[in-house]
Amino acid sequence: MLNIIKATLRQSRRDIFLKITAGYLLLMVVLSILGEEIDWKAHGSMMVGTLGMFLQFAIPIVTGVLTGRACGSDLRDKTANYEILFGKKRYEVYFGRFFASLIFMFVLVALIPPIPVLFMTIKNGWGASLAVSEALTLYGMLFPIVFRMVCFYTAITFFSGNDVVTIILTTIGPMVLILSVYMLKELDYNVTWQTAMSDLMRLLDFSNEGSGFFEGEDTTVYKLDLPVSLIVRMICTSVGIGAAWLFGGYAIYRRRDIP
To answer: Which of 1, 173, 181, 194 has the lowest CB atom count within 10 Å?
Structure first.
């Protein structure tokens, strides 16, 4: 399995489509710093809130595209089938590509979102919009949610047998889910643990804000509502439902005939 993980990571690094996707994400982060709506005097803690809405859209799309390509491009050209014919086990083919996708996404989440926050912190200091501990909690909670998304997209990719279905789904699905969440909310029904997208929206909700006074200037203060019970619930549902998708997808793939 280790060889498959290494080969998938190497292939993903050379994938032009993934390079374009990663470049797009990095460009959007840079533009969020340079955009006219960004106050150059904003502190690092304020930038955390500014990035919230962007990450709600970017993370699901990037996760789906990357996982689809890492898991599915070899399914279309039958490379995965050849691996099985030459002695690899199905669980190695399936979970090797899953772990490669997960590693890739964890690295992206760990490196790219903090860039504008660190930039503004170095330039203007941390500020008082958000406590450092709250910001670390937010970023830390991205990882179990991304794990759930990678599990889901891995299952969908192997079920469909190619990356195209996953990429189409991931470009349409997040927008549909966001609109559905808001529409259902108007009907007094809150979507919570049912989807990773709703958990991500809940985690990155910076709509509850107020005004404060810091270093002689007015500043925006984000009032997050992330009790320990909610954090534990998000972790449990992300790991539990993600694992259910992952092993469910493997159960189907294991029984499928090799074309």
So the answer is: 194
